[in-house]
Each structure stands twice: as C-alpha cells, then as structure tokens.
Amino acid sequence: MEKNINEMRTLSQVMEKLRLKRQDNEFVMSEGCFETGNGKHYKPEDLTIIKTYRFEGESDPGDSSILYVIEAKDGLTGYSIDAYGVYTNHDQEYDDFVRKIHVQDRDEQLIFSLEDVPGDK
Q1: What tens digit of pLDDT does each residue of 18-76 get?
Q2: Judging by beta carbons within 10 Å of its beta carbon (0-12, 13-18, 19+), is residue 108 exposed, middle or buried?
Q3: Contact by Cβ (8 Å): 37, 24
Q4: From CA 68, how far away is CA 99, in angstroms rounded?
C-alpha cells in the first residue's frame, strides 16, 4: 500500500515534524492561561489554532488524543496535546480555554514528505 506523502499517521510523526521545524514549544494550562517553557503566558485572544490532528488508537483506547498546533501573536508556534474520552488529562478549564481560541486551519501547516521523518521510510 502506497503512503500519501502529505499524510501523518501517528502522533510521534507529527511531534517529530514539529521538532524539525522548531515548533515544538508546548503550551501548558496554568492558572487560566497557557504558558510555555520560555516563561510567557498567553490568553485565548493571543493564540490561533492553525491545525488540529486527531489520533485514534486502533487497538488501545489510551492512544486517543488531539494535538492542537498553536500560533501566538508574538510568532511563537507550538502545540498542546489532550487525550480525549475517558482518558482525558485535562479538566473543564482546559476545554473552555481551548474553545475560546480562534481557529484558522491552515492546510499547508506540516505538509511534508515521510522521508523528512527519520525511521519512517
């Protein structure tokens, strides 16, 4: 079966592509805002979700997660990951926060050849 060069099948593939593009800043919920490892804090109006990926484990429901690729007004791009269903790792505050972020899905975000990801040839 031939793989589509624009299709990312696993969370690890997307995470590796973000790392390669230096967009691997994790946005973490903290006291009513997202914060990153650089000490910056962001409110929903400071952020835009530019791509959303949903992963569903074929045999393990624990593999079910959503990855949001997020761009801040200051140009920082990163991600936030949430398991969903009974395995969610965030509370209602996280869900409400994410719902307030503007969504501008960009088809060009993360399009790549599978050759860009080491070990996936």
Answers
A1: 999 999 999 999 989 999 988 899 999 999 999 998 887 665 555 688 899 999 999 99
A2: exposed
A3: no
A4: 12
Token duo for residue 81 = 């990951």
Q: What is the 3-state secondary structure (H, E, C) of the chain?
A: CCCCCCCCCCHHHHHHHHHHCCCCEECEEECCEEECCCCCEECHHHEEEEEEEEECCCCCHHHCEEEEEEEECCCCEEEEEEECHHHCCCCHHHHHHHHHCEECCCCCCCCCCHHHCCCCC
Walk me through the domains of the chain, giving residue ranges and CATH numbers.
Answer: 11-109 (2.30.29)
Which range of 33-47, 72-86, 97-111 scores highest in mean pLDDT? It is: 33-47
The two three-digit tokens of residue 36, written as one number: 């990153």
Residue 86's identity, in one-letter code, is: V
Q: How is residue 11 written in tokens?
A: 């969370």
